[in-house]
Amino acid sequence: MALGRRAVLLLKEMQEAGLPTKTLISIIDDDEDFREALQGLMTSMGFRVEAFSSALDFLARTNIRDTSCLIVDVHMPRMTGIELHRRLVESGYAIPTILITAYPDDSVRARALADGVICYLTKPCDEDALLGCVSTALERTEPGEHH
Hints:
The protein is an alpha/beta fold and 147 residues long. The chain is 43% helix and 18% strand. The protein starts with a helix and ends in a 7-residue tail after the last helix.
């Protein structure tokens, strides 16, 4: 994922709007190459990033509340991205979530957005669209919740 001109401008807008770019973005995807590409993009934009190969690995971390935005694959073994989002919400963790999938499905998309997911993107995702979703997610985080 090469850093596009629009992505650089978006980062500048986020900084000017006072959205801290040192917030923690957690990426959860069982596809190692895609996970590493996303991690590289988010790091190059100035975010702190933690990456996990499964939803269960993410849930096992010590402080879930440190995460300001989740970028999660929809289709993963043992727990899907949608199941993770629902579990977090039911547990009181309203972390803004972006779902990404290689297998788009309009009914899954509609359900996910109805459940409060910020964005539902198709792999390979456009970096400008992804960064726009991250910006929206961080704007929805309550003031003082950025980490």
